Amino acid sequence: MSAIAGRCLVTIALLLSIPACACAQKEVQGGDQASHVLSSVHLQALLETKPTCLEGYRTNQTGMLSRIDAPPGERAESTFTVETLSIPSAGVLIRGWLYLPRKAGRFPLIVLTNGGGDGSRAIKSLSDWIAPILAHCGIAALVHDKRGTGESGGNYVETTYDDYVTDAGNSAVYLSTHRNVDPRMIGVMGGSEGGRIAVLTASRFPIVSFAISLVGTVVSMQDDRIYAQLGGYRTRGIADSVIDEITPLWKRSFAAWASNKPADHDKVNEEIREARKHFARDLLPFTKAEMESIPDFKVVLPTWKSLGNDYMTEMQHFTKPWLAMFGEVDVVVPTQASVRNILHYMALSGNTHYAVAVIPRTGHAPVDVETKRMVRIDNLVLNWLNANVLRQ
Q1: Is the pTM of this model over 0.70?
Q2: Residue range 113-135: average pLDDT?
Q3: Quick one: three-class SS letters along the chain?
Q4: Which of 33, 154, 195, 263 would bridge 213 by S-S if both were Cys, CB 3.0 to 4.6 A apart?
């Protein structure tokens, strides 16, 4: 259905099917701040340089890494352990799995946040993929079920992004006293929806000292949704003239959700009903009552209920190390608008400890849209961590 077309789930598996935009976005301009956007040469080096900890190993979709030179039939041994936890957070228990290096000591920790949606396994696939890599390389990693999904408590349709920030932050606080966690080096990482959650968590929780985001939007909630919605239509081949006609109605619908005022919904609902006389239903917003009663829309309700939240203003106070990764041809997240906002707000905050990576030929998934090969963001993440966090 059209209202779901713009939904962004960051997963290694599912996002491979999201097509790339046919036209690249305009180049970023930002004066001195633009120096924080990694050059193509520097970015390529970070992507292609295999960290020392991964030499001799091959990563897998999930689970332990494989030795490249292992003799046939050799029984592989995991380089990490997994501890199951139930973490209290604002009245619910969050089920988590703590990946720990298989050696003694206290390690840096990364709390991994989830992509959008309520499919517990799908929205964790980025986390399930990178947690073993991090643990193999000496960094503890927490994978968890998002509130209201999987084995975690809570009612999914009643959640908002603020709940996910609270749960990620409380997980960091809870694990800061773990015998194997170094409380001085705790970060949060996520993709898509989880990318925004990661940065907000780092902003709000003092225990979190750095953030990593992958295709995490940095525009207003309403701008994010309209970009994703219209991007979905363009991918379907809907004519620009039609998109231009329906865009104002979509904006008014999102504004009504943001205001949470019955009168605003009543007005836009009448416009929706009138527009259905001229356009196919799947090109238009649905009424509030339909969104709340049709089972297929359950998956997007937390996002729609978060549309009135201002997540941009607090960015002007963000001063922690941050790696922000984007796909150059993403049709789900407005890459160039997000980069411009990062440069703007980091200039206001005075933050000089951040880097922006715009990965060529990459959309919402870490896959080269031309070669169809996976982009090694694990190399990028580990190399950035080694240079900017772990050696400090």
Answers
A1: yes
A2: 94
A3: CHHHHCCCCCCCCHHHHCCCCCCCCCCCCCHHHHHHECCHHHHHHHHHCCCHHHCCEECCCCCCCEECCCCCCCCCCCCEEEEEEEEEECCEEEEEEEEEECCCCCEEEEEECCCCCCCHHHHCHHHHHHHHHHHHCCCEEEEECCCCCCCCCCCHHHCCHHHHHHHHHHHHHHHCCCCCEEEEEEEEEEECHHHHHHHHHHHHCCCCCEEEEECCCCCCHHHHHHHHHHHHHHHHCCCHHHHHHHHHHHHHHHHHHHHCCHHHHHHHHHHHHHHCCCCCHHHCCCCHHHHHHCHHHHHHHHHHCCCCCCCCHHHHHCCCCEEEEEECCCCCCCHHHHHHHHHHHHHHHCCCCEEEEEECCECCCCEECCCCCECCHHHHHHHHHHHHCCCC
A4: 195
